[in-house]
Amino acid sequence: MLNSRGKVPEDNLHALSDAAGHGIHIAIVTGRSFFFALPAVAQLADPLTLIVHNGAITRARSGETLLRRLLPRETALHVLDITRPWRDSAVAIFDRPLARQMVYDTMDWELPNRARFRDRNREILEQVESLDEAITEDPIQIAYNGSVSEMRSLQAQLESSQASHAFTIALTEYAVRDFALVDVCARDTTKRSGLAAFARRLGLDAAEVMAVGDNYNDREMLEWAGIGVVMGNASDDLRSGGFMLTGTNDEAGLAQAIRRFALPA
Which ranges constitute the DSSP H helices of the chain? Predict the structure, then answer.
């Protein structure tokens, strides 16, 4: 939906408004938090729903929680234990009011991309003495960020754990910036599961859903949807995955996909 400058192109706004006018329900499915995503959708028409944290939380624009799946506290503590070499990349994210939604202990903020992340989330970030001791309730997820190579190593460590069946790993990469995110959520919590659960709530099946994405954490959602569309700015392997293709985010590829695959001829 956003271009490379973090803005919603006018053509995307017009296409989304046309879709809403034809009775299509818009769901923004993102790895971001509700707090982070809400300003980006301020100009979008209703009906609108936000499925955030890679499918863990589904909320109406008003903030009403429709669906929620948290990471068990014991699992979160185990994840932190087996990823101690990456502790300066870790935050724990909770479903709380603004204060203390994201907590960290030794996060290194020197990386340029992390500085941007900190500035955008300053209102909900809090440093604690011990991240382990701060896990006093079930979090939404344990999240990490860093270079692509660091995060791929972290992903491999998590996947090799004997307890890997107890959680789900979502990888998001921005190769141009050498920046990646790894989100650890509850078992079977993905963008696909979040969107599918919300579709069932609306009385829809997969054949009635179009999903558009551009990163690795979108793949399962694109495979599930009746029409899966990959943006032109996605990685080569995602664009070669047999999905429908549209323009890049700087070409308002979302608007192209809506007009081609969703709206009446």
Answer: 10-21, 34-37, 73-82, 112-120, 131-134, 148-159, 191-201, 219-224, 236-239, 253-257
The owner of tokens 């141009």 is: 176
Token pair listed for 37: 């995503």
> How large is the average pLDDT for residues 49-59?
97
The rounded distance, in Å, linking the Cα atoms of 70 and 63 is 17
Among positive and negative, which fits the CA dihedral 69, 71, 169, 249? positive
Q: How far is CA 217 from CA 172, 193, 238, in A?
A: 6, 12, 11
Sign of CA dihedral 43, 49, 53, 58: positive
Q: Are strands 102-104 and 90-93 parallel, antiparallel or unpaired?
A: antiparallel
The string of pLDDT tens digits covering residues 86-117 is 999 999 999 998 778 999 999 988 887 888 88
* 145-192 residue pLDDT tens: 999 999 999 999 999 999 999 999 999 998 888 999 999 999 999 999
- Give the Cα separation of 29 and 17 in Å (integer): 17
Token couple for 159 = 């996947």
